[in-house]
C-alpha cells in the first residue's frame, strides 16, 4: 500500500500494511461507526479523509469491517493502473460481461448528496437488476465469463473463505458472508445479489431500503423454493426469469 500512498510508507505504523490487509479488513486503520460512515459523507474527498486517519492497531492483528480503509484502494488502483475506477471497471468488468445498463460507481455522499472528487469504492454501484444478475452469475462460475477470466479461482477461494469476525460473518474481498445454506450475498440497504452453486440459481433484489427486520437469507429460501416449485409462485406475470450461462 505504501508504494501508492507515500504518507503510509514514511510512517513505521503504516508502512507494513499490504493490500491483503485492506481486503481482509484487518488493516488496523482507525474505526468507529460514526467515523466510518456518517462523517465521511460530509466530505468532498473521502479518499484523502481515509488516508489521513490514524493507525489504531498494528496491521493483521484485529479484524474489523472498515469502509474507510477500503476507500484507500481508489488511490492505489488508479496510481497502479494509470486509469480511473470508472473507466477501469468498464474495460475489465462491464464490457467483457456485456452489461446492458449504464453502470457506474457512486459519486455523491450517501444521504448527504455531497459531490465527490473520487468514486466511493467501498460501496455504491448503480446498475440494473439484470446486470446485477450477471455479476452473480460471474461468481457462480468462479470468475469466468464465457472464455474470459474476470478474476482468478484463487481470488474466488479467498473471497469465499468463511472466516468470522467478532461481529458476524467476514466481509472480505468485497463479499459478504456465506450462510449455512451454502449461498452468498452482497448488499447495501438490502440490495442483494445471491447465488447457490447447488441449484445454479442467482437472485437479485433492487428496491427501497428494507427494514432491519428484513432477513435476506429467508428471502432467498422463499424465492428459491418458488423457482423450484412452480405451484408456490402465484401469478406467473409477477415473475421475470432470466436464463443464461457464461
Task: Describe the model.
The chain is of the alpha+beta class and 246 residues long. The protein folds into two domains: 1-127, DD-peptidase/beta-lactamase superfamily (Beta-lactamase, 3-Layer(aba) Sandwich); 143-234, no CATH class. It contains ten helices and nine strands. It has helices at 6-9, 19-23, 33-38, 46-52, 67-71, 73-81, 85-94, 129-140, 153-159, 216-228, and strands at residues 104-105, 125-126, 144-145, 148-149, 164-165, 168-169, 183-186, 192-196, 201-205. The strands form four sheets. The protein has a three-stranded antiparallel beta sheet with strand order 7-8-9, with helices on both faces. Strands 1-2 form a two-stranded antiparallel sheet. It has a two-stranded antiparallel sheet with strand order 3-4. The two termini are 34 Å apart. The model has no long low-confidence stretch (mean pLDDT 85).
Summarize the structure.
The protein has 246 residues and is of the alpha+beta class. It folds into two domains: 127 residues, DD-peptidase/beta-lactamase superfamily (Beta-lactamase, 3-Layer(aba) Sandwich), CATH 3.40.710; 92 residues, no CATH class.
Amino acid at each position: 500500500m505504501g508504494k501508492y500512498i507515500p504518507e503510509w510508507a514514511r510512517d513505521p505504523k503504516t508502512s507494513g500494511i499490504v493490500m491483503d490487509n485492506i481486503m481482509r479488513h484487518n488493516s488496523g486503520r482507525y474505526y468507529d461507526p460514526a467515523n466510518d460512515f456518517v462523517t465521511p459523507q460530509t466530505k468532498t474527498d473521502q479518499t484523502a479523509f481515509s488516508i489521513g486517519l490514524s493507525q489504531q492497531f498494528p496491521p493483521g492483528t484485529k479484524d474489523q469491517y472498515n469502509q474507510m480503509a477500503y476507500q484507500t484502494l481508489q488511490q492505489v488502483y488508479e496510481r497502479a493502473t494509470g486509469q480511473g475506477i470508472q473507466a477501469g471497471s468498464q474495460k475489465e468488468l462491464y464490457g467483457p460481461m456485456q452489461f446492458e445498463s449504464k453502470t457506474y460507481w457512486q459519486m455523491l455522499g450517501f444521504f448527504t448528496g455531497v459531490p465527490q472528487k473520487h468514486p466511493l469504492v467501498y460501496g455504491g454501484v448503480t446498475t440494473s437488476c439484470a446486470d446485477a444478475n450477471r455479476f452473480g452469475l460471474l461468481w457462480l462460475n468462479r470468475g469466468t465469463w464465457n472464455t474470459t477470466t474476470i478474476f482468478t479461482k484463487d481470488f474466488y477461494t479467498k473471497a469465499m473463505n468463511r472466516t468470522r469476525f467478532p461481529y458476524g460473518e467476514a466481509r472480505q474481498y468485497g463479499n459478504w458472508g456465506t450462510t449455512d445454506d451454502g449461498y452468498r450475498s452482497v448488499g447495501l440497504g438490502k440490495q442483494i445479489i445471491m447465488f447457490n452453486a447447488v441449484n445454479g440459481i442467482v437472485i437479485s433484489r433492487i428496491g427501497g431500503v428494507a427494514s432491519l427486520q428484513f432477513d435476506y437469507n429467508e428471502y432467498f429460501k422463499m424465492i428459491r423454493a418458488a423457482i423450484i416449485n412452480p405451484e408456490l409462485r402465484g401469478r406467473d406475470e409477477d415473475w421475470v426469469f432470466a436464463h443464461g450461462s457464461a
